[in-house]
Amino acid sequence: MEINPNLSEKAKHDYKLVRLAVNGDEKAYAELLGRYKDAIYYMLLKMANNKSDAEDLTIEAFGKAFKNLAQYTPNYAFSTWLFKIATNNCIDFIRKKKANLISLDHSSDEQENITAPLQSNSPDPEEDMIKSQRMALTRNVVSKLKPRYRTLVELRYFKEYSYDEIANELGLPIGTVKAQLFRARELLYNILKNSNPNIK
């Protein structure tokens, strides 16, 4: 495929990495992740204004990009394509988060709208039951993963460890933890999808 001659040397190198990654070169994936993960994370942190959300959204952005890597064309820089995926994914996430909040009209001199969650202090027994069933299903699915992925998921989502804590606990570089957690989430999603065709 013709590479856009206006691409920078960095963008041309990225394209070489993309081609290697598409052919299954894991080092190329790791290098692409290493080149952009910090920039993507800080951009998403500004958008989401929450460290944990930004970390998860960073993994999701790379996940979506790596999943669709074969569709990338070198008409423009890989970084442009990646940042667009990350931005759109984050906008969707923020939109969904806002949809879970109830808008209240707040009358003031500026006639501004505020959004606030309405929460009840009394626990809903039906909701508790659904939550515990979902957790049991999740644990059952997680148990089907390979041991290394299972450990990562348990530490991150059941024990709520940070990426740094997981890296220290397992003696792994943080980039490896993030890449393997992404892979674990993909595997989980596929297992769930196969056991429940209604999941999209």
List the helices and strands and how they pair.
Layout: H1 9-22, H2 26-48, H3 51-67, H4 78-99, E1 102-105, E2 113-116, H5 125-142, H6 147-158, H7 163-170, H8 174-195
Antiparallel strand pairs: 1-2
Helix pairs in contact: 1-2, 2-3, 2-4, 3-4, 3-8, 6-8, 7-8
Which key features would you list for this structure?
Rna Polymerase Sigma Factor, Chain: A; Arc Repressor Mutant, subunit A; two-stranded antiparallel ribbon; 8 helices; 68% helix; 4% strand
Describe this structure as you would to a colleague.
This protein is mainly alpha-helical. The chain folds into two domains: 9-99, RNA polymerase sigma factor, region 2, helix turn helix motif (Rna Polymerase Sigma Factor, Chain: A, Orthogonal Bundle), CATH 1.10.1740; 122-195, Orthogonal Bundle (Arc Repressor Mutant, subunit A). It contains eight helices and two strands, in the order ααααββαααα. It has helices spanning 9-22, 26-48, 51-67, 78-99, 125-142, 147-158, 163-170, 174-195; strands spanning 102-105, 113-116. It has a two-stranded antiparallel sheet. A hairpin with a 7-residue loop joins strand 1 and strand 2. Helix 2 (26-48) packs across helix 3. The longest helix has 23 residues, at 26-48. It starts with 8 loop residues before the first helix and ends in a 5-residue tail after the last helix. Residues 102-120 have low confidence and may be disordered.
